[in-house]
Each structure stands twice: as C-alpha cells, then as structure tokens.
Amino acid sequence: MDSRTVFVLLWMLLSSTSTGIKLDGNGYVDVVIAISSKVPQDIRLIDKIKEMVTEGSFYLYDALDEKVYFREATILVPPQWNGTNFTKARTESFGKAKIRIDNANPAYGVEPYTNQYGECGAEGEYIHFTPEYLLNDTLIELYGSRGRVFVHEWAHVRWGVYDECNGEKPFYHSNGHIEATRCSKNIEGQFYEVTAGGSLQQCRIDPQTSLPTKGCMFFPDRNQITNSSIMFLPGLDPLESIGARTSDLFNGTVSVDQTVGNKTSFVIIYENSLPSIYIQSPSGLIYTQTNMNHDVSQKTVTLNIPGTAESGDWKYSIQTKILQAFTITVTSQVAQADVPPIIVKTHMNQQFSDGTKPMIVFAEVSQNYRPVIKAEVWATLESETGSVHTLQLLDNGAGADAFQDDGIYSRYFIKMVNGRSSLKVRVKNQSGQTRFAVLYVPGCVINGVVKLNPPKPPVFEEPLDVGNFTRTDTGESFEVKLSGTAPPNFPPNRITDLSAEIQEDTVLLNWTAPGEDLDQGTAKTYKIRWSFDLKMLRFNFSNGHSVNTTAVSPQEAGSVEQHSFNLNITIQNGTTLFFAVQSEDKQKAKSETSNIAQASKILPAPKPPGISNPGMILVLVISLCVVTMVICFIVAVVICAVKRRKRSAQSDMALIIANECQNNLYA
Fold first, then answer.
1. Closest Cα partner for 154 from 93, 71, 102, 230?
2. CATH for the stretch 340-432+467-488
C-alpha cells in the first residue's frame, strides 16, 4: 500500500459538478471531505480528519484482503477560515461532497450516519460527521474507533449496503434458543436490561412471543476472535411553482408555514395578454393588480409582500379571456435565522436511460436534516415533445422506496419517451411529523463483566409541527434514448417487507402489494412457498412447498396484503418455517423472490426457552449451588438433633436401669 495524501482546500460555492470518487489501481482518489460554512474554525478538525482517514485506510485494506485503501483525500474548508497552507478549490463544493462535516442533525445528535435514497446496491448521498464527534475522544468508547466507523459509513455511501442488525426485531428463535439479530451469529455476548438507575438485571420474557421484552439488549464480548461484518457494529426553495394553459379561470392555494415568510413574492408570467389577478392572505386581505408591479416587456406581474407574510393558506385567482399559457411562482425566505426552513430536493437515479432499466424519482423533504414524513408529494415529468406524466411519490418502504418514514419519497418511472425531459416535484403537507431511529451500542462484556458505555447523547424526538406548507423543486433534466420502439414490459417489483407469524396451526402473512409494472397498477397472481430450509427457499424458490393461492386476488400497488392459511402439516412446538412470495403480471413476467420471512411456533411454557447467555447460565448454576448448600445444612442440623435426642434417651434409660439395680440390691 503506497503513501496516502490529504490535501486541504479553501472551498467556494460553485455551480459546476465535483470530481467523482475514482479507484486508481487499488487506491481511492478524489475523495472530498467538506466542512460546512456553519462550522467555526478549529484547526484540530483537520488533524482529526487526517487521523480518521489514515486509520480507516488500514482497516479497509485489511478487511478486504488487501484489495483497496484510501490513497488520496481532499479536505474542503469554508472560505472564511484563515490559513497559510490552504489553496483555492477548483470544482469541489460542499453540496457535492460525499463526506460532510456539519452541525448535528437533531435526529441523530453527534452520531455519524449516511443519507441513503435507493435500494441495496445504490450509492448513498453523503456521510454526515459532526465536529463534536471528531473532536470529543470520549465518543470513541461509545461508537468505536473513528477509522472503523468511517469505513462502516463508507460502505453505505460507496457500495449502497445497509446495516446488518434489526432495531424492530432484535431477537429471534433458533433451535429452541433465543438469539440476537447480528452478523455473524458467532459473535458472542450476553443479554441484559439496563434499569433507570443504570444497573443491570436479567431480561424478562414476553409470554406472548416467548422473546425478551422491550428494553433487553445484547452486549457483545469485546475480547473475541470471530469473523464479523463491518455493517453489524463498527465500532431555500420556491414554495410554489405551477403552470397552466387556459382561456378561463385558474385558481389555487399556497401555504406559507412558520419557518418562512420574509421577502415573500408572487410572480406571474403570462404568454400573450395581461390576465386579471387576485391574491388573498389568510386573514382575508385582498391584493389586486393595483398592488402589483407589471413589467410589460417581460410579461410578468409581481406582488412583493411587505415584512413577514402571514402564516397560513394564501389563495390566488387568475382569469384570462383568451387561450394562453402562464406560470405562477411563489418564493419566501427564512423567517428566523435560528429556525431552518423545510426544503425539498429531487433528482432521478439516472441522467441517461436506454429504457432497459426502470428510472426512479426521488424527493427528500427535510428540515435541518430531519425527515418530514406524512407529506403529499407529486412529481411532474414533461418531455420536450409535450408529453406530461405525473406520479405520486411514496415513503412506504415498498417498491422503489427503500425505507418507510425516512422523509425520502420515491417511485419508479416507466412511461419513458425518447428525448430530454424535465422533472418538477411539488410537496404539500397537512400534518407533517418526524420520526427517527438511531443505532447505539449499550456496552460490551470484558472478562465476563458487563461494562456499560456512557449514556447515548440526547436527540430531538419531538414531532415536527409547522402547520400546512407547500414546496416545489426542479431537478436536473434527463435524457431517454430507447433501444426499441417502446419501453420494455417491466415485471412487478420485488416484495421487500414480507412478514410471517404462526398462531396455533394458522400462518399469517403480511406484505405491501406490488404492481403490474413495478410499483404501478395491479399484479395478476401471487405464488407463495415455504420451507424448513432458508437457503433452499432463497436460491431455489420453485423447490419450496407451494401454498394454494387461488382465492388470493392481488390488490392495487401500495395496498396492505394480509392473508392466512393452514399448511398440510402439523406444526410442532419449536418449529421454525420460512416463507417467500413471487408475483406475476398479465404477460407472465415474474418478480424477483421476496425477502425471506421467518416464523416459529412457540407455545407458552412455565419456564422460558433457553437464552444463549453464559451470564444467565452462571447465575443459574450459582443459585442451584446455594440451594443445595442450604438443603445440606438443614439435613445436617436435623441429623445432629436426632443424634442428640438418641444420646439423651440412652442416658436416661441407663440411669433408670442403674437405679433399679440399686433398689434390688438393697431389697
């Protein structure tokens, strides 16, 4: 492995694209690590970044059998930072950097994370480190060495892999024992609950599931030699922009939320003649053309709202007597410097397509990195020939969407036509909230003793409540050049959220319905198969035991499918079964096999099933020894008492006999 180089550049906001990360030989180059302009100058950050990349390079090199490492990295510092060894950036920019140093995302606190849009295998957007994480060495004990964490996040952003753990299902049944969800299964550790006072107690078992109750955690042994995965534990935009062609009345509503309101403007661009325009504030104040600026040469009408615009729904009405096209664009800036606005960012997963692979539309809705969920998101894709297609983007964790409720809304785009097309996304929200999920290592086992890590840094977990709002964003255009006369017939999308449960002798399956073409329309049929062998079902779906699905009619894409059935076997207590689903369209095109769902039949028992926990076994052995010692002590006391009674009785008898003998002698 040859020398690694880290350059330090003074970054500037440039519109050009950044150089992409490349693999030169077996060394990564053009890796840009950008520091946000909101971060105050601290030269220690540069040293810590260099240390992290260097340590991560050695770890990556060893983990991948000496195949790749980090050869060259560039650190981009804000333009207001002073330094004699800084050189000016050329095409690098913070917004294009794959590794970013910025103030904390309220959802994660200081914890590093990677923002990922697509499914497994699709590159992530960026890695987010905070200055506190890099400067505070006490956090190493909490999250692991920075170099290892860097490689963990690098796997997310570069290779599109996901964590190999499950926060929703941290435990499962395996051969009569309870196992923690981890990779690999050879990683040893113990199960405990941490009380409010910070002490440890044995995990309790839920009688319904026969699994540990919520609060039970897995503590891995720190000193162990085993093959494990680096993915288990590593250690402002327009509010509204819309167009129409009409010879009549066009009206609508745009919501101004509490995060914006300054320098609010309505701009109407018309094609031929000046239309009649009326705009009404949430309180009922009417603005007419006498309040607006009219630029005849540019054919634009502008209304600038003085001060801070009212929060709420603003209504607009545009009336024209001739057929003409026009657009209305509403912009507004941040109302308070300390309250970041809600923003939307959109893009396609491909900038060029030949039609052989489906395209995906993404829209990320967030406030200061926090995801905004439960919003209504629509994408409009218009070709240069005038063909318009609208799609509702979903955040349901199915189809093109990788994760439910992460604020990233997605949908497949299959109505492709030749030529260049534009993308515009409009977001409306009536009850926006946020939800977060943060991974945390509670501690580890050292020489048989559980050592707790420091408490997890607090994160903001209150729901985001900003009232109604609208946002629009225009993505980069994309080009389609079909290899045939029309796009190919795409099969139904792969089901990724199949779950299974066994209740007595009945199996219950749940999943999100795919479509006729990927995640659109309605599939024709389902095939459900099960097996005792997970690998066989995964790699040879057709060899699994078939379930009769003649009575199962697929629902429209995005619907919740719930089906129950009885197998042609008697399911014994302790049995674990595996299930998978395929769907088919009208042209007999089959989807990929779904995720494998696992279910076990566990009947409630007086004693919980065994837990793979050496600590619990030790406690049990000690308890049995104590009980045995107590029993032995009691038996010894009883025997001793009996012997004393016998001796006392014999002594009394001897005394009586002696007295009688004496009486006889004197008789």
1. 230
2. 2.60.40.1930
3-state SS, residue 615: helix
At residue 495 the predicted structure's pLDDT band, cuts being 50, 70 and 90, is: very high
- pLDDT tens for residues 91-112? 778 888 999 999 988 777 888 8
pLDDT of residue 662: 35
Q: What confidence category does residue 435 fall into, taking pLDDT thresholds of 50, 70 and 90?
A: very low
Residue span(s) of the chain under CATH 2.60.120.380 come to: 238-337
Q: Which of 521, 496, 639 is nearest to 581 (CA)?
A: 496
- Which CATH architecture is the domain 238-337 placed in? Sandwich (2.60)
Please name which of 572, 571, 550, 554 lies closest in space to residue 562, comparing C-alpha atoms: 554
Beta bridge partners of 437: none
Distance of alpha carbon 588 from alpha carbon 492, whole angstroms: 10
DSSP 531-572: ES-HHHHHH-GGGSEEE--TT----BTTPEEEEEEE-SS---
Indicate where the chain has its CATH 2.60.40.1930 domain(s).
340-432+467-488
Q: Residue 178, Cβ neighbours under 10 Å: how many?
A: 22
Residues 557, 599: contact at Cβ < 8 Å? no
- CA distances (Å), 197 to each of 50, 134, 194, 200, in order? 39, 29, 8, 9
Q: What is the CATH number of domain 499-600?
A: 2.60.40.10
Across 314-338, b (16+ Cβ under 10 Å) vs e yields bebebebeeebebebbbbbeebeee
- Which tokens is 422 given? 């534009």
pTM above 0.70, yes or no: no
Per residue in 342-368, is it b (16+ CB within 10 Å) or e — as a string?
bbbbbbbbeeebebeebbbbbbbbbbb
- Of the candidates 259, 261, 262, 306, the one whose C-alpha atom is nearest the C-alpha of residue 287 is 306
